[in-house]
Design goal:
- The strands form 4 sheets. Strands 1, 2, 3, 4, 5, 6 and 17 form a 7-stranded mixed sheet that branches.
- Strand 4 and strand 5 form a beta hairpin.
- The longest helix is centred in the last third of the chain and has 20 residues.
- The chain has 2 domains: 176 residues, FAD/NAD(P)-binding domain, CATH 3.50.50; 118 residues, FAD/NAD(P)-binding domain, CATH 3.50.50.
- The chain is of the alpha/beta class and 302 residues long.
- Helices cover 24% and strands 27% of the residues.
- The protein has 7 helices and 17 strands.
- It binds NADP nicotinamide-adenine-dinucleotide phosphate (NAP).
- NADP nicotinamide-adenine-dinucleotide phosphate binds next to helix 5.
């Protein structure tokens, strides 16, 4: 079957694109490597999406998924390994098969950036985590560290301060990239210790993480005994599988115009994997609407 539009990625951007495309009567297949929802499902409470304050990220994602399904979008949970362009049609290749469409919207978002430390992969799930909302409850009354200085690290540290006995927040500079208001809330918490101008340089473990080695910019080294380490050092865009059809900038983000068009006719991008200034839920859903509208126009103009 030839779909009108294949959407790669069932995060807020991809699922919003599906809603817009279905409302324009286009046939839609959404291909998603994991579960629907993307990054937002890890947010305990959304506070900055207009008219949807105090909803969990999971409930928000489920609402969008159900809305897209009810409108007739088809979902398959398969990882797209390759995208081919034959001009009139695009072929998305997964382990299970090949799917064709006249247009494609790539809304693959981004993945957690790793710290790049020896043993990090082996210890993931054994003391190392990239999601405080998912794994924080395992560290009740324990000692944890968070690495990073953006809003994710600040919010993770605040969240963990409610659960854990002690929270170290380790950041490589002396000022934070995240919001000042959150920094102030953190500073008022007695069980939070800021470890600034410092980087984690080694993980010490047997079966699980036992401690981390932290090196300050002045060269001094200390060992922090921790049960858990939460890495919140940003994200990397998931575009590599599509670099044959879309232009990527130095950081791997997809170049596109105001209408989310890429250098390949009929291939559009939407969401956090796209080069832009603001990556928020509201800009992801906006991208989904814009990319779908451009794709619909592309299809209607033949
Ligand atoms: P981010 O803003 O890119 O921050 C990443 C942090 O990790 C930076 O402080 C960076 O340090 C540090 N870092 C990067 N690589 C590192 C490494 N190898 N070792 C040690 N530290 C490293 O990422 P984010 O916090 O995930 O946020 C992403 C976007 O989502 C941002 O725009 C953020 O505002 C937004 N966000 C918003 C909310 C909200 O509105 N409530 C919540 C979460 C996230 P430097 O500062 O030194 O570069």
């Amino acid at each position: 079957m030839m779909y009108d539009i294949i959407i790669i990625g069932a995060g807020p951007a991809g699922m919003t694109a599906a809603i817009y495309a279905r409302r324009a009567q286009k046939s839609v297949l959404v291909l998603e490597a994991q579960s629907y929802g993307g990054q937002i499902i890890n947010t305990p409470e959304i506070e900055n999406y207009p008219a949807a304050a105090n909803i969990s990220g999971f409930d928000f994602a489920s609402n969008v998924y159900n809305q897209a399904k009810a409108l007739g979008a088809e979902f398959k949970f398969e990882n797209v390994l390759e995208l081919r362009d034959t001009g009139a049609s695009k072929e998305a290749v997964t382990k299970r098969g090949e799917y064709s469409a006249r247009a494609v919207i790539i809304a693959t978002g981004s993945a957690n950036r790793k710290l790049g430390l020896e043993g990090e992969d082996r210890l993931t799930g054994r003391g190392i985590s990239y999601c405080a909302a998912c794994d924080g409850a395992f560290y009740r009354k324990k000692t944890v560290a968070v690495v990073g200085g953006g809003n994710t690290a600040l919010e993770d540290a605040l969240y963990l301060a409610d659960v854990a006995e002690k929270v170290y927040l380790i950041h490589r500079r002396d000022s934070f990239r995240g919001d000042e208001a959150t920094v102030e809330r953190l500073k008022s918490r007695e069980n939070v210790e800021l470890v600034l101008n410092s980087r984690v340089t080694a993980l010490n473990a047997d079966k699980r993480l036992q401690s981390v080695e932290v090196k300050a910019n002045d060269g001094s080294v200390r060992e922090l005994k921790v049960d858990g380490l939460f890495a919140a050092v940003g994200r990397v865009p998931e575009n590599q599988s599509f670099s044959n059809l879309i232009e990527l900038d130095g950081a791997g983000y997809a170049d596109s115009d105001e209408s989310c068009r890429t250098k390949t006719a009929g291939v559009f991008v939407a969401g956090d994997n796209r080069r832009k200034e603001v990556r928020q839920l509201v800009t992801a859903t906006a991208d989904g609407a814009v990319a779908a509208t451009a794709a619909i126009r592309y299809l209607n103009e033949g």
